[in-house]
Amino acid sequence: MNLCLIEDDAELGAAVCAALSDADHRVVWVRRVQQARAALDDDALDGVVLDLGLPDGNGFEVLRDLRARRKQIPVVVITARDALADRIRGLDLGADDYLVKPFEAAELLARLRAVARRAAGAAAAWQVRDLTIDEQRHEVTRAGECIALSKSEFALLRTLARHSGRVLTRIELESRALPDNEGAALDVHLSNLRRKIGPGYIRTIRGVGYVIER
Ligand code: CA
Q: Which end of the chain lies in a sparser environment, N or C, as judged by fewer CB atoms within 10 Å?
């Protein structure tokens, strides 16, 4: 990833920079709000690590400006302030995740990977083993072969894939995937979907709901 680190603390900044570079990320490190504005103009950026307390201003301003221009770019806020109000404000302004100092570099890396995955998932496609669910093209392929699905079947599969690894109750699945349908339709659409994509993808958890395994 091409990352921008905005952090005025020399020691912490150097440590984070080193950890990110070791993990094969390219990092531009800036220490002031003024420099951050210029650095964040780079369209090639894939993610931002942002400290809130900066010498010439506040990380919140940087976040607000950034979100006004680029809604999708992943932002992880790092801060010494662990007050609840700061966290809520940061998340309200569009931070994707929060890390309170001191933290392990490995944790920052894991958070960055997670927010990058979410950002990519929101934009494009989900992969469930050999199934690819392409949101924009409204297309499902299994091992490269196209599978024709109805609108409802596609919505069910996309919803399960979006939450893969987590069991969705019937009610959650219906309200998210089939908001206009009668309750009885769920079983019909699920059974058609399973027949088309093949067995083993969607598991029924008796009395709880349905899950698609990653
Ligand atoms: Ca600081």
A: C
Tokens of 161: 């894939």
Calculate the CA 139 to chain-centre distance.
Answer: 21
pLDDT of 183 above 60:
no
For residue 167, report the phi and psi dihedrals to the nearest 5 degrees: -80, 130
Residues 141-177 have pLDDT tens digits of 998 899 999 999 999 998 898 778 889 999 889 888 8
How distant, in Å, are the alpha carbons of 34, 77, 183 from that of 170? 50, 36, 9
Q: How far is the CA of 126 from the centre of ligand 1 (A)?
A: 37
Question: Residues lining ligand 1 (ion), CB within 5 A?
Answer: 8, 51, 53
Mean residue pLDDT across the chain: 87
d(CA 43, ligand 1 centre) in Å: 25
Percent of the chain with pLDDT over 90: 49
50 CA distance to ligand 1 middle (Å): 9
Question: Closest Cα partner for 129 from 161, 177, 166?
Answer: 161
